[in-house]
Prior knowledge:
- The structure is a single chain.
- By secondary structure, the chain is α+β, with helices and mostly antiparallel strands.
- It has five helices and four strands, in the order ααβααβββα.
- It has helices at 3-94, 98-111, 123-128, 130-149, 184-204, and strands spanning 117-120, 158-160, 170-175, 178-183.
- Strands 2-1-3-4 form a four-stranded mixed sheet.
- The longest helix has 92 residues, at 3-94.
- The termini are far apart.
- The relative contact order is 0.09.
Amino acid sequence: MSIEKITSTILAEAEAAEKAALEEAQAKCDQIIEEARNKAQAHMEAMVKKGHEEKEKIILRRKSVAAIDSKKVLLEKKQEVIKECFDESITRITNLPREEYINYLVQVGINSDMYGGLLTFNEKEKTTIAPEVIKRLNEATEPKRMEKYGERPYSESFSLNEVSEPITGGFWIRYRLTYADNTVGTQVDFARTEMASEVSRMLFEEE
């Protein structure tokens, strides 16, 4: 075999080996790229899924927070309305017709279960209705005062404090160390404690 033929054969074998090596390398490269592509696709799908799940969680949390905030706002508004109702009742009571208002204050005084003391009014009521309230309160409690104290000198009756105070309406009673708050505001506060739930049901038709 001539040198040229041997050389040609070697070159042909080398080219075939090179081609086979290149094809094998290309196949491995394609396989690696495909695997990488598949992994990337799976990773992307997992991230998208996780993103949707996180989005749903965030939406649920925000809905939950919004629901709580909404309930808080609604409760605050209800409380404001209830407060307005009771505040309005103070105004209505203090603006009752004179005779009705006097009767109301006398009854409140009787309910204090006291038989005498110094009554303090605001400046307006001190000069308008206080004398009549005290007169009727003394008359109403006279039998019990006599029953409890008889004719003893310390069986004091109700009298007017010439010093007025900026109270909502009604009066304070002070007898020695005994004290009673018969102001309209305090009486309404007592009613507010007892009737707030009932008023809420009436206003908002709650069960």
